[in-house]
Here is the input.
Amino acid sequence: DTGVSQDPRHKITKRGQNVTFRCDPISEHNRLYWYRQTLGQGPEFLTYFQNEAQLEKSRLLSDRFSAERPKGSFSTLEIQRTEQGDSAMYLCASSLVATPPETQYFGPGTRLLVL
Amino acid sequence: AQKITQTQPGMFVQEKEAVTLDCTYDTSDPSYGLFWYKQPSSGEMIFLIYQGSYDQQNATEGRYSLNFQKARKSANLVISASQLGDSAMYFCAMSHSGGYQKVTFGTGTKLQVIP
Here is the structure.
C-alpha cells in the first residue's frame, strides 16, 4: 500500500497526558497537512509543511500542540497536557506541488479520546 | 473568508438511482479549486473529483460528476447508478489561492443507499 499511513489508528489517554501521532505521506509528496475533525464536522486545517519547513499554523493549534517533519518525510503531531476538548479525529494528508489540481490525499486518521 | 455550505445533513437514495449532493461556496478569490471527498465509517477521506474555477467543462470521474455553476457559486456532486458501497459521508471542499493548498471543508452530507 503506497497511500498515506497514520499511527496509531486509535488512542485513549487520560487528561493531562502527552500523546504523539505519526504520519507517513506518499513517498514523492513534498507537502504534508494536519487536520482535526470533530463529530459532525468537516476537517479543520491545523498546520502544513513543505518538505521539512512548517509554513503555516492555524489558530486552532494552541501552544500545547507541536508538529515536526524533521527530514521532510514522516511527520509527528504531539499534544501536551491533553484536555477532553482535544478528543477528535486527527487526519494527515499529503500532496505534490505540481500543475493543478494539487490534490490532497488523506490517511485513515488517528481517533483520540481523552478521558 | 472562504466558506463551504452543505445544507443536506442526510440523504437517502435507492440503489441504482442517481443522487445529487448540494454544495455552495463563498470566496472572493478569482482562482480556487473545488473538491469532493467521501468518508466511509472507517474514517479515511477518499478523493473523488476536482473542479477548477477556470475550467469550462464540468468535471467527471466515472460515476461521479460535478455540476459547476460559477455564477451561483454551486458545485453539486452527482452520483449516478448508486451502489450500496456509496453509503458514506460526503464532503465538499475548496482550496484557496496562494502559495499552498489550504482546504476548507463543509459539514458533510450523510448518504445512505437503500437496497
Notes: The first strand of chain B starts at residue 3 and ends at 5. The mean pLDDT of chain B is 93. Residues 65 and 78 of chain B are 5 Å apart (CA to CA).
